[in-house]
Amino acid sequence: MHEALLYEKIGGGRVRCNLCAHRCVLAAGKRGLCNVRVNRDGVLYTTVYGRVVSRSVDPIEKKPLFHFLPGTRAYSIATVGCNFTCQFCQNHSISQYPREQDGRVLGEDVSPEAIIFRARESGCETIAYTYTEPTIFFEYALDISRLAHEEGLRNVFVSNGYMTPEAADMIIPYLDGINIDLKGISKEFYRDVVGGNLRPVLKSIEHFSRAGVWTEVTTLLIPGMNDSADELRWTAEAIYGISPLIPWHISRFFPAYRMTDIPPTPFEKLEEAERIGREVGLRYVYVGNVPGQGEDTRCPECGKVLIRRRGFLVRGNLLREGRCPECGAKIDGVWLDAEE
After folding, report:
1. How much of the chain is in helix, strand and coil states, percent to nearest 5?
2. pLDDT digits over 25-73, tens only?
């Protein structure tokens, strides 16, 4: 085990974990809600440091990040565990494993240096901390991120946004991009379906965006749960209130985990959400999990298709120095050096 960051001793052998917004208070021998942080005799430890359960070379578009080095590859890693209990989780076999196996941890021991070596060897421009919630393997991600910057690699999180401001401030100097799941706009949905609270997520989106970390947002539309016209508009307005420049990915739901009785999101609902996002004033709105629909980047001024996509593949990129070649409008994002 590896001693954790961001905790305080509060007497009687108890500790308070200040890594995520749950801020768990743990008596000796107890685990946090994530089930991968444990109090041993008044010292908080992480049980997943260096224990990689999944690693792969992915298109950066898979995160999804559409305005961050399009067409490049990300060396993607994860450990087991999560601080949420989403009933629709696509990766529940690894995200919920410690919770469902009494704290047991799976994974191959891989040093931060080995991750950097493999990323460079694979020709990746970025390391992505993804598949499960990177906040729960924060110490490991932080050590890798520091080394990555020294080696000229960039770092991105794919996150539920449920970290504390203290954690955000610690990773921000080494984080180049983040996609945050805004799972809904209802407090009840977050409490009953996700296992968390809405407000810290909105604060995280604002925190990273204001700090200059390139930020994109994803919302999975679950029929009958978070997809009413009012909720879609409120979600789009919440993002717009932080910044209209944040790309919004509207993703199609497919039955998974404890929600196998709910059908996939109708195409009409995805189209409605896309229309609402644009009506609210978001400059970049995308439809996900529907190959061939709503994946292209268009100029928000003249409508010209600038980046053509099919699934996670970039089929064409007309950006010139980060601008539309038709009307000259600046397109917000982190582009390849030749386009910056």
Report:
1. 30, 25, 45
2. 999 999 999 999 999 999 999 999 999 999 999 999 999 999 999 999 9
pLDDT tens, residue by residue, 179-235: 999 999 999 999 999 999 999 999 999 999 999 999 999 999 999 999 999 999 999
From the list 216, 241, 238, the residue with the least C-alpha distance to 226 is 238
Q: What is Dmax (Cα atoms) for the chain?
A: 67
pLDDT at 339 over 80: no
Cβ contact 153:126 at 8 Å: yes
The token duo for 270 is: 């995805």
pLDDT of residue 340: 40
Residue entry with tokens 């995520």: 20
Q: Rounded mean pLDDT of the chain?
A: 96
Task: Say whether pLDDT at 310 is over 70.
Answer: yes
CA–CA dist 260, 5 (Å, integer): 37
119-138 per-residue burial string, b: 16 or more CB within 10 A, e: under 16? bbeeebbbbbbbbbbbbbbb
d(CA 57, CA 170): 26
C-beta of residue 73 within 8 angstroms of C-beta of residue 62? no
CA separation for the pair 340, 335 (Å, rounded): 6
pTM, two decimals, is 0.96
How far apart, in whole angstroms, are the C-alpha atoms of residue 157 and residue 213? 10
SS3 state of residue 317? strand
pLDDT at site 248 = 98
What's the sign of the alpha-carbon dihedral 265, 267, 268, 273? positive
Q: d(Cα 240, Cα 61) in Å, to the nearest integer?
A: 22
Query: CATH code for 51-288?
Result: 3.20.20.70
Cα(32)–Cα(40) distance, rounded to whole angstroms? 12
- Chain Cα centroid distance, residue 129: 8
**Would you give the end-to-end CA distance of the chain in angstroms?**
43
Picking from 282, 284, 304, the residue whose alpha carbon sits closest to that of residue 294 is 284
